[in-house]
Structure formats: structure tokens, C-alpha cells
Amino acid sequence: MKKILSLLFLFVLFIGPCRPGATENLQSMIDEASDGATIQLESKTYEGNIVIEKPIQLIGQGNTTIKGDGTGNVISVRAEGVTLENIGVENSSMDRNSSEEYAAVKVYTNGNTLRKLTIKDSFHGIYLSKAHHNTIDQVHVQGSGDEEIAGQGNGLHIYYSNQNTITNNEIEGTRDGMFFDYADGNIVLNNKITKTRYGLHYMYSNENEFKNNIFTFNTGGAAVMHSNGLTLENNQFIFNYGHRSFGLLLLSANDNHIENNTFYMNQRGLYIDQATRNTIRNNHIYQNQIGIELWASSSDQIFTQNVISENTIPAVTLGGTGNNAWSKEAIGNDWGNSFPILDLDQNNIGDHSAIFQSSLYELIEDQELTYLFLKSPAISIYEKMNELLNKSKIMFEDEHPLVSHPKKQVVLWPVVLLVLGIVVMMKMKSLPSKT
Amino acid sequence: MNYIWKEWKESVRSKGLWLSLGIMIIVSLLMLSRSSDFSLDQGFYLLLVNLFEGLIYFVPILCLFLGAFSIFQEKEQKTLVMLLTRQESTLSFLGKKSLAIQLVLLAPIFVWFFIYLIPLKMNFIVDLHHYFLFLVALLGFILVFTQIGVFIGSISTSRMQITGIAVVVWFYFFFLHDFILLSVLPTITHDNVQLFSVAYFLNPIQAVRMFLESGLGLYSFGNMSRLLESFMWLSPSIFFGVNLLFWIGVSFALAVLLHRKEGS
Amino acid sequence: MIDVQNLTQSYGKKTVLNQVSLSVNENEVCALVGRNGAGKSTFISSLLGLLPVKTGTIKINGKERSKKQHWENEIAYLPEKFMLYPSLTGYENMLFFAKTSQKPLNEAKMKEILTWVRLWEDKDAPIKGYSKGMLQRLGLAITFYQDCDMIILDEPTSGIDPIGRNEIHEILKGLTNKTILLSSHHLDEIKQLCTHVAYLDKGKITKYPVEDFIQLQHLGGR
Fold first, then answer.
1. pTM listed for this prediction
2. What fold characterizes domain C1-74+155-222?
3. Of the candidates A197, A219, A372, which has its C-beta nearest B200's C-beta?
């Protein structure tokens, strides 16, 4: 009898069915693996938290999840050459009072690859702490949304980390989408960031490249502060729309190149304050409430070859008269239909300057509630009245405005003809019935 | 029901409703074509915002005219007098007539925007909750201006008068109201910002816009300054609801009190 | 019965009706006659409660009219120059007004009345195609449907050709046991249809038997 019971006990212990969802000890698996090993995880939930201190590859399947215990980082990478791929990571500590900033994946070393991770329920998504030459690719970070700022961290937090490649990631609903803090030489491509406070928050970070990213529905698309030498190209800043929102903020940011970007339907397309020597070229800034808000503390900006059209206010200079250039090498900007500009010699450059005057600058400077009226048709009347009373001030003068051929209204004419046709038919129908 | 049935028959057989609906359909389709270049998720919200901005230009004046002329025709045709000498009082007549006008106008618009979902779903990822919110905003907007139109028709004695008053009302809400507020904006401080807020949200255009944009999650109120917090002392939904009730109530009450039975 | 005593109505400083009194007895057909602007419409509006009465009394069947009183069951009224709802058919117009009544709908009665006024065959045509005579007959049909003892008609043959007028006269002659107040400018119509004439002039009403009034007209006095 005793033998039977012992055998049964051993059976249950070693061979018997596990509880549904029970995990193998992942940390043990990692500790037992040799350097360079590939651990193929199963499609189930593993318990965290784990620390990786050797170069291994951790590869998941469709539903592989590593779930933290809520006390710290779910995955800490403390070795170089680690690859994490195709894994869901969730449930880091949410403690904001700790000196340690917790994350789903926190990387302390160089040369690692984080690919196809799905992160949620964590304070920060991925935290690079003095970690260089890492690749973060196709990571999806889902924050708690609802404009929660204090209770959560950022999608990607790059701290004193250089030369990293951050590509094809999607971040939604975190505090900031990506936060760069003293991080230089990083390449950030093809990411989508939405519904965060700042989609991109750059502080004291220089010489980074930022291309083909899309920022939508954030309070601020990208806030570049105290950072220099940034290349911002082919990005889209769309629908960053809240009170005092902006597509791109340059604050104490110098020598940056802002080129070929789209700023569409933002409260303010560009907001430039205490910034110098930035080149803003060939961007499409349209249907924003304020195309460019430029504070006089900023100087030596160059605006050239941009299309700035259909904004409620194309550009406004606040706090005095700054010293910025609205053209370069005799090439200015295309202001769309904002100004009637003659081009009699047909060289696509206006025969006279484009000068914009506005009286709203005073209101905007002194009273933040002015932004609430920018969509109102009353703005145009307000401007006109003050223009007649000589209360307007020149906001900018583009000496070489570009003139483009208007787009053909392909759809409009058939529609107009259709409406006219219907009206004529109805008129004709009503004529013979008179008795 | 009798009034609704009669109003429906009249509207369906006349031009006013169909022209209004036609314009709305054309504008909706034009906006759809403009927004189709954008991505599946962005395009939906871009469309709703742009569509709303397009509609507010002509919906108020159309509604003012439709409401006003519908009432005025009852005077012109002497049917009002016939009804008042039967079972109706001014209050009951205007109540039934208002309800009939509103329902007859709102129903086809609602149906159109229900059909509109089909091309929308083909082009974008549609959030039905947000689309419903857009409909609520638009229909609320129409309710307000149609009721104001009923008031105009009730007090007017000629078609020229209706046209003049309707244009003035439209001009006031579209331009003058905000212009006055802009002019007093430099004097606004924490002490009077709530009063200013009431004045701001009295304008149905602003109340509806704020309701729509905040409801769609586009307009965020995160990190508000103290002044803005005081300004937004009620939620946009409440401002919208109160605005609706205020204008419909006041318009109806004034229509009854200042009603003139005869047209010229 | 209509009993008006000392009714005064003014528009601003202009007094239109100056302590006017008139009694129209049961089954009388009384014409209300006067020059344009004499105050006929004001008098009728006062009777119907469309104008507030500050001075004087108005009694219908012995009951004084109060602010909230509706005369739907006592008086049927057809205004002058009405147009009804042009885009609705004759039948739909009649149906609408029939349904506004508190009485239950009686479609058989509607058919009977429309047949009597010779509109049954045209009932499904939109009334914007009706002639003036047809429109007037439809108005009468709507009025008769109310089935009140008292009927007030404001210029029922105004603008109608002689043949149309005759048709309407035939219809009105067919009414029995009704008290009718009829505003009219046509002496021949008054002579054919009325038993009495209430002559309104300079804010005062004088009531005559119709024969006496016709005789006075022939003597060239008025």
C-alpha cells in the first residue's frame, strides 16, 4: 500500500497534469541555457520577473506572454546580444515613487534586439538605460489611455542611450510615446504614435534622425526641447488637436532640420520658442488653426519651400519682432490662397512680397482662451476690423513667395452641373401644371 | 400624429426638404472623397470633423428658413386661423407643429447618415459610438435652429421679414456673438471667466463643436491651466444639453408669447 | 344664437368697433355687410376669440366666451381667401381637419359631404390644381363636417365666377336648421340666401330684415 501511494505521489509530482496556465520556471530555463542559445517559448503565459544575464534568444509563439509579478521590471536585460522576439510582456510594477523607473522590458546593455513584442499594463513599455546600439522593431505598446499622465510612463524611454535603431513600432495611450533624455545618434523610423501626451518628447538629445513617423491624436505631436542637430523628415503630424496642442514644438532647440513633413489639422502646426538656426523646408503645413506660431525669442529660422495653406492663421509672431528668414536663396514659401500673389513672368515666384498682418497676436500673447475662437468665422471679421483701424502688425514678410498652379477641381464641376440639372428639371416639371 | 402625417406629406411633395437633403448629401459625399486619401483610422475622424465644419455653414440658415416658412405658410394659407377656431390654442398648435417639423426634417437626415455608413465602412475603420455621437451633435444642432426658425415664422408677418430676421439670426450666431466675446476677451480674468464661459457656450455652434470634438476624443483637456479649468466648469456634454434645452425652450416660449396670427 | 353687446375694439388710437351690439337668432341667415375696412373681420375675429375682448360681452348659445373657451362644437368658421394645403389632395385636407376634432373620425360622413359639394371624383387630386370654385367647395365641406349649429362664412364666393357662385349658393341653400353669419359684398347673394342683414358702418351695426335692406339699397341710400 505504501509503495502504491509513493508511486502515485511521484506520478503527480513529475508526470501529472499541470494546472491550466501554469508556467515552467522561465528564469531557470534562462539560467540553464548556454551563451548564444535559442529558447523557443511555448504559446502560454510564463511568470516573470526575469533577468537575462547572458546572450540568448528568447523566441515566442502566437500567444507567448511573460507576465510580471507587479514588483519590478518584467524583463531586465543585463547582457549584450540578447534577442527578445514575438512575446507579450505585461504587468510591471506601477510604482511611481520608486527611484527605479520600472518597465515591461528594461535594457541596461548594448547590442540587443527587441522585436515583435506586445506590451501592456506596464509603467514604461521599454526603457533603455545607458544602452547603446540596440534595435527596437515592431513593438506594440498599449498604455492605459484616458489621458492618464501621472499613473503611467512612456511607451519607449531612451535614457542616456545612443546609436539605437527604433523602427516600425506602434504606441498608443501612454504618457509620452517616446521620451529621449540625453540620447544621441538614434535612428527613429516608421513608428506610429497616437493618443499620448507628447508623441515624441526630446530633451537634451542631439543628432538623432527621425523619419517617416506618424503622430496622431496626441496633445503634442513632437516636443523637441533643448536638443540640437535633429533631422526630422517625412513625418506626419496629424490631428494633434487639444487646447494649445501642436504638431511640432521647438523649444530651445537649435540647428535642426525639419523637412518634408506634413502638419495637418493641428491646433498649431509648428510652435517655435527660444529656438535658433532651424531649417524648415519643404513641409506641408495645412488646415491647422495656426500654421506656425513663432515667438520672438527665436531667431535665424529659415522657412523655405514650404506649402503653408488653408490654415486659419498662416503664421503668427508673438512677443515682439524676431529675426527669421522666410526665404532662402530667393525661394520662399507657397502660401496657397492666403494671399493673392501675382506671377506675371510665370517663374512660379511672386512678383511681390507676401505680407501677413494680424491683430490676433496680442490676444494670443495675453489670453490663452483665444485659442477657443480660432475655428470661429468671427476671426476673419475681427482681423478685418482691426486692419481697418490700423491695429494689425506684420507677422511676416516672405519676399519670394512661391506661386503654384491651382489643382483642378475634378469633382466639383460635375456636382455643380448635377445640382443645376436637378433644379432646371424641377422648374420645368412645375411649369405645365398651372391651371 | 395627425400633424406629423400632414407635415410629412407636405414636405415630401415640396422642394424645400429635398433641396436641403440634396445639399447635405452632396456635401457629405464631397467630404468623403476628400478624406479617402487618409489612413483607415485617421480618415474617419478627419471626415467627421471636416463634415461637421462644412455642414455648419449652411445647416443653420436652411433650418431657420424651413422652420420659419413652414409656420408662415399656415398663416398665409389661413389654415392657422381655421385650426385656432377649432380645438387648437396657440400653444398646442405651435407645440404640435414644432414636433412635426422637427421629426419630418430629422428623419430623412438620420436615414441618410445611416446609409452613409456603408461607404464609410468601405473606406475607414468606423467607431460606431463616435459616429452616433456625431449624429447626436448634428441632429441637436438642427433641432436648435429649426426651433428658432419656428419662432421667426411665428412672429413674422411677411416673407421678406422672415428672410431678414433669419439672415440676422444666422449672422449673429455665426459672426457677431463670437466677435463680441473676442472683443471682451482681454478683460477676462479668473473672477469673471465662468460668466464668460456661459456666454461662450450660449452659441450653439461652439457648444456643439466642443461636444463633438471632446466626445470624439480629439480635443483633450489634459493639463488644463487654472483659467481653463474655471472656464470648463461643466463638461462639454452638459454645456451641449443645456444649450439645446435653453434655445429650444426660449424659442418655443417666445413663439407662443409673441405669436402673430396673420400674415400679409 | 350669437349675442354681442357693447363690443368695442380698437387698433391703437383708431376705434374700429364702437359699442357694437348684434343678436343673430336661431336658424337665421344673417349677412354681415359693410365697406372695406369697416370692421367686419374684426367683428368676426372677436366672435371667434381670435382677438381679445376687453370691452363688451359675447355670448354663444347663452354662454359667455372665456379665455380658454373653444367654440369648436358651437361655431364652424371658414375664412376668406384660404388656400388650405396645396400639396395635399382634397381628401387629405379634409381628413386632416377631421382628425383635429375631438369627435371620432367618420369617413362615411366625409364621403357624403364631398359628394354633396360635388368633389368626390376630384378628391384624390392635389388641390393646387383645383379651381377657385372647387377650393371654396372643399372649404365648405371641411366646415360642414364639423356639424355645428352655427356657421360663420367670410366672403364665401369672393373671386369666384358666376357659375361657381351659383353652385355654392345651391349648396348653402341646402343647409337647414343652421344659424349662419355670412360676410358678403354681393346683394344678389344676400337676397338669395339671407333672412337678415347686419350693416356695419362707422363702428356701429344696424340689423335689418333682408327685404328692408334691399329696399333701402334700391332707394340709393347706402
1. 0.85
2. Rossmann fold (3.40.50)
3. A372
